[in-house]
TrEMBL record:
Gene name in the database record: obg
Stretches for region Disordered: 15-45
Cofactor: Mg(2+)
InterPro entries reported for this sequence: G_OBG, GTP-bd, GTP-bd_Obg/CgtA, GTP1-OBG_CS, GTP1_OBG_dom, GTP1_OBG_dom_sf, OBG_GTPase, P-loop_NTPase
Keyword Hydrolase: yes
Source organism: Soonwooa buanensis
One GO biological process term: ribosome biogenesis
Protein name in the entry: GTPase Obg
Amino acid sequence: MSNFVDYVKIHCTSGHGGAGSAHLRREKYIPKGGPDGGDGGRGGDIIMRGNGHEWTLLPLRYTRHVKAGRGENGAKNQLTGAAGEDIYINVPIGTIAKNEDGEILGEILEDGQEIIIMKGGKGGLGNEHFKSSTNQTPRYAQPGLPGEEGFVVFELKILADVGLVGFPNAGKSTLLASVSAAKPKIANYAFTTLTPNLGIVDYRNYKSFVMADIPGIIEGAAEGKGLGHRFLRHIERNSILLFLIPADSENHYKEFEILENELKEYNPELLEKDYIISVSKADLLDDELKAEISAEFPEGKKPIFFSGVTGEGLMELKDAIWKKLHG
């Protein structure tokens, strides 16, 4: 599952600090010159930087390790060692970095924003710092401090106006392909969509909104079954949710309740979002069957019927989405 473009795990090592110098000044006419050892340079930092031109974590997918530069040691004549080279990891806006324990190290909210996610080790102090009235020639200096090391998880939650929620094969990819220029992979087997597809949907009078095809979730996803958890994450940042129940489902309202329960188990706040219920693949139904399916749903939760293949009901669906977004 590590090949998801919204989730990347990288082993990071910040730079060690350089050692301080314990040099004693020795010049021809100054027999007791005293300590003149300089400080070690700081180790390089690992820095996460926002890049407004990136939309996924795909460029980082094959990055396994990053290592910042080591600070140089101090030298005589109170020379401080050079700082180690910082390493920048460019990420899309909306990316969160977490450590191995799941603690959030930072979140990128704007282009060019920089967050140090692993600080380089401090350089050691040279012996000139340890000179005192009782110790005129200290022959010791501090070693540099080690950098930090560990795995960092970069996670990008999809930002969209409408998130499509449904079991595998509910028709999400077909809908997205029919209402936008997105070209998702479409095939008749479970888990076709392994990465979320984003599409710009044209609406009346040159308006538009963003729709995200969230990979299919399965019953039990909230407990981590199947591929569930990774997918549920995407839903958190969508403004409204569009539930898709396929026309050929055995029990349409029951399927909606299962999907709703998965969201509740994962994060109850998701159910506070506005949502629309729809029945996809409506080209398989006649009016009598549509009436029967509609009767399964209580008042206030009646579904909108549409077909991504024939285009039936798509304008009605867009109107309902726009009304929820801007009502």
